[in-house]
Amino acid sequence: MVKTRIAPSPTGDPHIGTAYTALFNYAVAKKNKGKFVLRIEDTDRARLVPGATEKILDSLTWLGLAWDEGPIHQSDRLSLYQKKAKELVGKGLAYYCSCSSERLEKVRAEQQAKKEVPRYDRKCRQKPPSKEEIEKGNCVIRLKVPESGETSFEDLVRGEITFQNKDIDDSVLLKSDGWPTYHLAVVVDDSDMEISHVIRAEEWLSSTPKHILLYNAFKLKPPIFAHLPLLRNPDKSKISKRKNPVSLIWYKEQGYLPQALLNYLSLMGWSMPDEREKFTLKEFIDNFDFARVDPSGPVFDLQKLDWLNGQWIRSLPEKELADRLKDYTKRDLKQIEIVLPLVRERLKKLSEFEAQTKLFFEEPSVDTKLLLDLGHNEKETKEALGEAAKLYKGLGWGTPRLEGETRKLSEKLGWIASDLFMCLRIAITGSKVSPPLFETLTVLGKEETVKRLKKISSLFSK
């Protein structure tokens, strides 16, 4: 059976990279009628953040990436890792190390001064600590990497990859406090949970030969590996919160639809056979093939995501969209439904709804300089606003009638129609950019429209 997993660490807000990796793992499992496992890698006790696990679960649920097994916490499996590490020592495939952090820092500094790659110098491999030192509980357990030969594996994205064993560090497997490092825990867990495909970010590529050596040491068959390209900032650097939002919670709070975010992440290093950009999760699963994954780092472009999210917003049934907007505005459902048709085409994120519709519920402030910038003096502007208010007060209310009569008014006043329309738009909405003018007036109502025009007209001297 095909079995994949996502294994985030609860060290902060759930990362956009976690969603990206989870999506590909989920797709491979579902395409092959397999299982998708959620594992919480909480062995780095110093970096644990309270509540982070719950945020991970909430974010994956929001995205619709339902797991079939888990969540499984590594912290519940401590005795298993300890047993496995000691098993390797017993086989002569790992060893105890008593080197202090001060000594390791000194060795690292000396290596850097010589422009050498920092690594453990294998002191305790050559001269093991005494039984008494080991019994004190201050030793770590390190992997005993072969000093010659090479370690190879096949990657579904990158093909065959080979590492020279002499270049692989004797990494720590079990820390002195009895907690495992990533290298030991990931191999023990993936084997124990029968994970068939390890699909993860390319940053773990250099760790894979250590994992292969561990599988060999335990006499276990390694899983199939696939290392996805890292998401990149526009300047091609690794995606980071300094240049791009990385918290999944931020994307939810901004009003990105989960189906739009998954759609966009699908396009990061992968493409549909027919090159279309908008598609559902099911369509992604049905068409997924590792042969179409490009190993070069895709650029995560927020503007492109905004565009795609806007496409998804407009594809939602109006009732469903109105219901989703309730979490992003203080307006009630009836108010949302009244103004939604006017802003639907302009929304890129659900969070924009409040700002774009505020003018319907709260009187805006108006900068009279914007009105005078249209090329008419105070007297002409005051006259235009006053005449419009007088016209609208006695007019039947409705979009076609409003536009027709306002065009006639522009001719009467000697204004270019577009200038008068902009003058009215600014006076009514406080901005040069708003939903369509006459549809806005229709929804706003005669009384409120006339009141706003009179108020702004009164700001100009006679």
From TrEMBL:
Positions occupied by motif 'HIGH' region: 8-18
Main localization (coarse): cytoplasm
Domain of life (superkingdom): Bacteria
Motif 'KMSKS' region, chain ranges: 238-242
Subcellular location(s) of the protein: Cytoplasm
Record-level GO BP terms: glutamyl-tRNA aminoacylation
Family: Belongs to the class-I aminoacyl-tRNA synthetase family. Glutamate--tRNA ligase type 1 subfamily.
Record function comment: Catalyzes the attachment of glutamate to tRNA(Glu) in a two-step reaction: glutamate is first activated by ATP to form Glu-AMP and then transferred to the acceptor end of tRNA(Glu).
Name of the protein: Glutamate--tRNA ligase
Lineage: Bacteria, Candidatus Woykeibacteriota
